[in-house]
Amino acid sequence: MGQTESSKKQSEKSNTEHVPLLETGTVVFNQSMLFSRLDNLEDEEQQKEEIRNYIDTINNLDVNRQIYDVSKSVDWLNVKKDISFEELRGKIVLLDFWTYCCINCIHLIPELHHIDEKYRDDPRFSIIGVHSPKFENEKDTANVANAIKKLGINHICINDSESMLWHNIGISGWPSLVLLGPNLDLLLISLGGGKLSYFESVIEQALSFYSDSLTDTILPLDDDQIRDDRKKEYLSYPTSLTIDGDENIYVADSGHHRILVLDSSFAVIDIIGSASGECGLVDGSYEDSRFNNLQGIYFYNDALYVADTDNHSLRKVDTLERTVSTIAGTGKRGMDYEGGKEGMDQILSSPWGIVVHEESVVFSMAGQHQIWKYSIDSGMCSKFSGTGSESNLNSDNKNDVCWAQPSGIYLKGEELIVCDAESSSIRSLDVVYGTSKPIVGADKQPDDLKAFGDVDGDGYDVKLQHPLSVIQFNEESLLVADTYNHKIKLISGNHCETFSGTGIAGTTNGSLEDSQFSEPSGLLKLSGGCILVSDTNNHCLRLIENNTVSKCNILFFDLEDEDQGLSFHLKNGPHCDGDVCMPASAW
């Protein structure tokens, strides 16, 4: 991030509090005008001509199309120094309006990466990610910087914490794409991303149309900031946790695209997936298998079931044979809202939380706001709950229930406890009959997905902020990772109160009241009643024991991966830094 003085930024933001909406409105530049016409043209040359005509028409409009300059009021990321909007003149610029909680924004990243790679050596074009936060927690630039690393975003980004550019252009939803001409003027707006293949064609034609007006000045992209340094950490953005009958703990080491197996003393006894943190979709042995940003994991009958989120697949780890196999999903995201196919013929969309109930793998499909089931016996995969509309709608009729990016789930008898992340609520689903009911959080109006905060209380009066994990604490209570509030919350019936955490991201250990977390997103109850927490943005595990929070020191024994040139050593070995054991490649 480019360095700026906080006081200066706050002054600039106060001066631009009321950013004007472009008087032209956005309808003139809406992608549907162009893309619908392109849909009716099969010939590639005709499509190019249609795009050139569109650009010429927009270029000759006698209206103000120039966007508001917010460059001094935002924080810049993935750059060596802050950039002024003037430095973007003479370029075709693609603005991606995103927020890091949004699953649809996450879905768009690989496609943007493809465009970025295509034009990486062409200084006449640039992608700028305009982070426009939904949640209060997402306004913090440090959290956005973490998200950029976690999601592998390589292009320049700004954190527009007050959404000034969003209001200036009239954006109405995430994600949205805006293409700018060489004078920072609007060419095209697309809510939801639109068809990226068409956007590529428009970019190509815009580079040709404006060729005489474009410059080849190079923007100060910071390769050091972009470079993935997570391989130096022993954990990277850990998420879900589960345990087997021998009290071995499985950790979804999501940033390293692997699973760590720990014994009860937190010593690493095995690694499932790449020791070096390489991602992919590969079945086979523990050593050869690959995952991609896996989230939920659940141990059942000598098998570990995995929601391999960015591979849009379900995986099964046979812990006796030490093998990994894909049991559902094609490896590519699809949008099938009913299912009914078997195994790898069934497309999925960002599976997240996962449990097993009566020989069925139950998993949250965050990518299309549903709960699905996979039959272990037949391999059949199908929708169980959710229309696919993003909403916080509970109902006694299973066909009416709606979810809003359901994430972490926990099975309590025949009741599935669901972290409904985008409605910031904890909800209950009957896994037999499909009826749902509220527990805490959200709003009575099911379409209000902005009823978030940090408020203890009862029922709808409770306010959470993007919770991602829930477990049973005792017979009467649940524990919830209130992720964006950096807290652990205790729920008893319909009452919710803070259990641990100050609400400010940090690393402080100690009493429940004084301890700090940073976007915790995994919980596990150990024998004896201790609670293990995946403290995700702190890249560590924390232990809650005897009303005290402490950091778990993970011990790496001599595990070697000759192909990757990696070896791990004991904490008290010759190559350790404090309480962190480093891969040999990081020395």
Strand content: 25-35%
Distance between the termini: 25 Å
Determine the number of helices (DSSP H or I, runs of at least 4 residues): 8
Give the proportion of residues in helices.
10-25%
Strand order of the largest sheet: 1-4-3-2-5-6
Largest pleated sheet: 6 strands, mixed
- Overall mean pLDDT score? 89
Radius of gyration: 24 Å
Specify the overall morphology: globular
Determine the structural class based on helices, strands and strand pairing.
alpha+beta
Which spans have pLDDT < 50 for at least 5 consecutive residues? 1-8, 10-16, 559-587
Query: How many β-strand stretches?
Result: 39
Describe the structure.
The protein is α+β, with helices and mostly antiparallel strands. Helices cover 15% and strands 32% of the residues. The longest helix has 16 residues, at 44-59. It starts with 5 loop residues before the first helix and ends in a 6-residue tail after the last strand.
Q: Keyphrases for this structure?
A:
587 residues, alpha+beta, 5-stranded mixed beta sheet, 8 helices, 39 strands, 15% helix
Describe the structure in brief.
The protein is an alpha+beta fold. The chain has 8 helices and 39 strands.
How are the SSEs placed, and which strands pair?
Layout: H1 6-15, H2 31-39, H3 44-59, E1 75-77, E2 92-98, H4 103-118, E3 125-131, H5 141-151, E4 156-159, H6 164-169, E5 176-180, E6 186-191, H7 196-209, H8 223-226, E7 238-243, E8 249-253, E9 258-262, E10 267-273, E11 284-285, E12 297-300, E13 303-308, E14 313-318, E15 323-328, E16 339-342, E17 351-357, E18 360-365, E19 370-375, E20 380-385, E21 406-412, E22 415-420, E23 425-430, E24 436-441, E25 457-458, E26 469-472, E27 477-482, E28 487-492, E29 495-500, E30 510-511, E31 522-525, E32 531-535, E33 540-545, E34 548-551, E35 555-556, E36 560-561, E37 566-567, E38 576-577, E39 580-581
Parallel strand pairs: 2-3, 3-4, 10-35
Antiparallel strand pairs: 1-4, 2-5, 5-6, 7-8, 8-9, 9-10, 11-15, 12-13, 13-14, 14-15, 16-20, 17-18, 18-19, 19-20, 21-22, 22-23, 23-24, 25-29, 26-27, 27-28, 28-29, 30-34, 31-32, 32-33, 33-34, 36-37, 38-39
